[in-house]
Every structure is written in structure tokens, then in C-alpha cells.
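note to self — DONT lose this again. spent like an hour looking for the file last time. sequence + predicted structure for the chain T wanted, 275 res
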Amino acid sequence: MTADEVTNHTAPRINARARQNTTGRRLGAGNALDAAEATFRLLVTGPSPLALDGAAIGHGLPPRMVDLAELTDMVLAPAATDRLRDAVWAELVRRSREDGPSWVIGCVGVALPGLLNIAARATRTASPSVADDIVSELLTEFVAQLKRIDVTRPHIAERLLLWARKAALRARGRDERHLALATDTLPALPASDGADPATVLHEAIHQGIITCEAAALIQATRLDGIPLAEYADARGEHPKKLYARRQRAEARLAEAIGQGQLCANFDGASQKPGL
């Protein structure tokens, strides 16, 4: 099942609290994860909710049928062990391969907290239309990996989410390249003492101080909290190469700030670079 099929399966209706990550960023309504969450809620309510046999899975689950909404809370609980999570996910993946689209949605629903967090970070500075594309590709990759993931290896959910994150970063990277081609059309943004870091980066692109690619690197690894090694891996580049590129860009930003070209309210340029 593709992200488009997930989106078309039901009308979107997502809980606002679940859609908000730790930074307060909210995703726009109507995207693929929105629709998947609404469908998941339908599948775990009513007289015959999607459920797994806790007795068969073991590892501390109650010896009864456990619906996937309750199961999500159990695997996310601090007391849940890695062995429990992997046992649950091995069964979820098996069901998604053998028992049809409902169980694909079931897997998405159980992974939804992680998927929403990835989506919120990846779309932080994206326009609504681009954000929808990023979320769609994130979900498409997650669903595709359900057919491929090796369930005999540990950390099944973490590896699924890693693939989803890579897809989101790839999609965002394409948008950044398109933005680079249109840099000369960007409107001038005033640099003031109250400007936030994203605005300063935008102004630095407009003035030709740094490239759009360099700004995206700083945005992702300094402001969005994405590890530099992970960012490099998603782009097929060596971390040391990106580390050096970021150092050069931050040096140019620091020089521009010192000369008064940019406001001094950019923390990223004053941080000591590090992997």
C-alpha cells in the first residue's frame, strides 16, 4: 500500500496533541500521516479491533488479545524491553505481509509517534506543499520497508524509522536544491536583532554569503538537531566532508555578522563546530 492509497482510504482527522512535537511544531492537517492515523483509530475501535495475542508473544504482555492502541502504549512504556518491542514488531511485520492492508495501517499506527516526530523535524521550515511531499515519501518508504526489513535482527522499529527518516531527508534535499536554483528570486528579509536563526540563514542565502546547500546543512544539523553523520548518510556523503563544509559556511556567517552584514542573533555560527 502506497502513501497515496493510505491517504485516500479515509478522511483525515488527527488528534492535535499527537501531532505536536517537543519543539511545538505542528504538521498541517490533511497529509498522509493524518489519514493513516484516522484509519488506525477506526481499526482499533469497535467490536473487532486489530489485536495481537499477548500470550503468544509473551515477554510480559497480558495473556489475552491486546488491541493495537493498547499495545502501542505498552511498547512505548519506559519499562518495555527491547526483546518485547522486537517480538511485537516481528509479529506486526509478519501480519502486514500476510494479512493485508489493514495490518499495514496497524504497523503505521503503532509507529505513529516516531513517524510524527520525524515528520515535524523534516518539515520544520518547508512550505505546506513541500511538507506534504516530505510526509508522503516518509510514509511510502516506511510501508515499503515492511516488505523488506529483516525481522531476525534486533531493533526492528528503530530500523524502520531510520529508513523513513532517510526518505524524508532525501525529499527535503530535493526541495533545497530547487530552492538553490531560484535563490535570485528570494525576497529580501530584513536582518534585525530580533531575527530568528532561520531568517538569518535565508538572508545569508539572499546576500550570497553562503549557498542554499550550506544553509540547509546548518539548518538540519544545528537547528533541527539531526546528527551530522545521519544527515550525511541520507545524502550518500562522508560526514567529514560535510563537517568541513559546515565549518567554512559558519566561518563566512561569523565574518558577515562581524562586519554588520547580518544580525548577531545567530547562535549556530558562534558554536564550536563538532560532529
